[in-house]
Structures are given as C-alpha cells and as structure tokens.
Amino acid sequence: MKKRLRKKLHKGEFRELGFSFDAKFKTDTEMQVVEEWLQELAHLLNEHSLEMGGGWNSKVCGGFITRERGSVTPEEREIVREWFDEHGQNLESISVGELKDAWYGW
After folding, report:
1. How far apart are CA 46 and CA 10, in angstroms?
2. How much is the average pLDDT of 79-98?
3. Which of 64, 78, 85, 84 is nearest to 16 (CA)?
4. Which InterPro entries does this one have (predicted)?
5. Is the pLDDT of residue 106 over 80?
6. What per-residue confidence (pLDDT) applies to 105?
7. 67 to each of 53, 59, 60, 94, how far by Cα in Å?
8. CA–CA gap between residue 90 and residue 41 (Å, rounded)
9. pLDDT score, position 63
C-alpha cells in the first residue's frame, strides 16, 4: 500500500491509538458529584491534549480517549488510569482498556 493511501486510511505508521474506559458510580451518588467528576476528568484530558467520546448518566460513564491527531502514549494512559484510582471514591468500579487502534480496533 502506498504511503499516501496508508496516511488517508490511518494504517501502518499513521495508525492512531486510544483506549476505552467504563466507570460505574455508587448508587447513592448525587448527579452534582457526577458532573463535578466529569469536569475534573475533562480538565485532566485538556491538560494532556486528549479528547473523549462517549456518554454518561447518574449511574455509568464510559468512552474512548484519544487525541485529535496522533496516538495516546502508554504514559498518558497510565496518567489517566492513576487519576481514576485517585478520584474513585464515588465509583463502584472502573475499568481501563489497553491501547488499541482508534480507527480499526473494534
């Protein structure tokens, strides 16, 4: 496959990596606490030029974290995972996936 096509299709050296996460909030967690948690997560992601797509409600939050261009590094994934551990007092469970291809890793 030619370089131009690999770039257009995000293949080979142009592959972009990201990771998924799923968080389950404790049943008695108030919506305001959930919203504050999400604001802090957004601030962390913004500090590291990361982006998230996904959804949330008062019980669960899940999504895929990547960056606009390029890949998430293993170090950045670890920073986010550690943040989840530090800010998990209102979480019943949290799972953080491995780095995978953001375009074709499904």
Report:
1. 23
2. 95
3. 64
4. YggL_50S_bp (IPR007416)
5. no
6. 77
7. 10, 26, 23, 21
8. 14
9. 95
